Amino acid sequence: MIVEERNYAFAPTDMARFLEIYEKEGVVIATRLLGNLIGYFRTEVGPDLNEVVHLWGFADLNDRAARRAALWKDPEWLDFAARCPAPVHQRNRLLAPMPWSPIR
């Protein structure tokens, strides 16, 4: 298993709008296509305010590539994405769990 960590930073005026539309529409579409949503968070304090962090689990890199390709071909997702505020910064990382990790 691999875990993809995705971090999106928004302008302060866009954060609430993004979270509202993602909760109503985006999470259902993304979960249907990407599968294993491990967690979805927002920053509360620290240097990276107005940021959302989400973790997605995939069997391997091929599984991730196939699911992300399907996401960006899905008309429902494309419509949703076109109406969302764009992040001002994005960072993605692929994480490999250690054998003793509760998530593997």
UniProtKB/TrEMBL annotation:
Pfam families: NIPSNAP. It comes from the Bacteria. InterPro entries: Dimeric_a/b-barrel (IPR011008), NIPSNAP (IPR012577), NipSnap_domain (IPR051557). SUPFAM superfamilies: Dimeric alpha+beta barrel (SSF54909). Residues 3-102 form the NIPSNAP domain. Belongs to the NipSnap family. This is NIPSNAP family protein. It comes from Sphingomonas oligophenolica.
